[in-house]
Design brief:
The chain has 12 helices and 5 strands. It is of the alpha/beta class.
């Protein structure tokens, strides 16, 4: 499988050099497009729905972090000539995978993209691991434990149930419970048999499946209401779980309603 990349960089020479000399195919990727400013970058993210966004921070129109926040990009790499800690902290909160300081050479970028592709592949494997829990003939698409014999994990499940529609992750759950991410991650997997991201995505898919029974709601609204960063990303995740696009699933359940 090849993952799509959007490169957003206002310096023309840097943008063209990275676009033309990076061996995208060898990294398991393809360059879907480039952009020179934050507003056009946002428009192209919404249009192309790339798997990975590589962006500078300082851009004309709007900065790269605002662009990522507006689109709720799932996988991103930052390029920047600035070492201001506030930028780094904001990037971390947005879930940016890596922060590369300019000037960036091809080897640095390729190493970062290669590592991110591996992470995405692992996430895809997480989704595959949940297929045994899919119960497409019932109202709840994926069977999930709602309660375990551990009050901490029950609190995490309650946190997910309350906040799944927001851009939350393991970090926010750990902060809420005042635990380390590593401890919470290990404990959650031991008690539920799933990692945090698996459970969160499955919960969101279940909520989306339930909302699709209401013909008044369109699929884009459902994606937003269930915490997915974009309708395109929602469609990808939903199809990996169910084997159907959201539209196909809606058509199927309408036959039995």
């Amino acid at each position: 499988m090849s993952y799509t990349v959007l490169l957003v960089e206002d310096e023309q020479l840097v943008r063209e050099e990275l676009a033309q000399t990076t061996d995208w195919a060898a990294l398991g990727t393809q360059l879907a497009g480039t952009s020179a400013d934050g507003l056009d970058g946002e428009a192209k993210i919404r249009l192309l729905d790339p798997d990975i966004v590589i962006t500078d921070i300082r851009l004309p129109g709007q900065d790269g972090l605002t662009m990522l926040k507006n689109c709720q990009v799932t996988h991103a790499i930052i390029l920047s000539g600035y070492t201001d800690f506030s930028y780094t902290r904001s990037a971390i909160r947005l879930g940016v995978f890596d922060y590369l300081q300019k000037p960036v050479d091809n080897h640095q970028l390729e190493d970062a993209v290669r590592a991110l592709v591996q992470k995405i592949k692992e996430e895809d494997q997480d989704i595959i691991a949940l297929h045994s829990r899919v119960k497409s003939s019932e109202k709840e698409l994926i069977e999930l434990p709602r309660s375990v014999d551990n009050h901490i994990i029950n609190s995490v499940i309650s946190f997910i149930a309350t906040n799944y529609s927001h851009p939350v992750g393991l970090q926010e759950a750990a902060e809420y419970l005042e635990l380390s991410e590593s401890h919470l991650s290990r404990l959650f997997k031991e008690e539920t048999g799933l990692n945090f991201l698996q459970y969160l995505n499955a919960w969101r898919i279940n909520k989306a499946a339930a909302l699709m029974r209401d013909p008044r709601k369109n699929i884009s609204e459902i994606a937003t209401d269930c915490g997915f960063p974009s309708p395109g990303y929602f469609a990808k995740i939903f199809k990996r779980f169910s084997g159907m696009t959201p539209s196909q699933y809606r058509d199927k359940i309408s036959l039995f309603s």
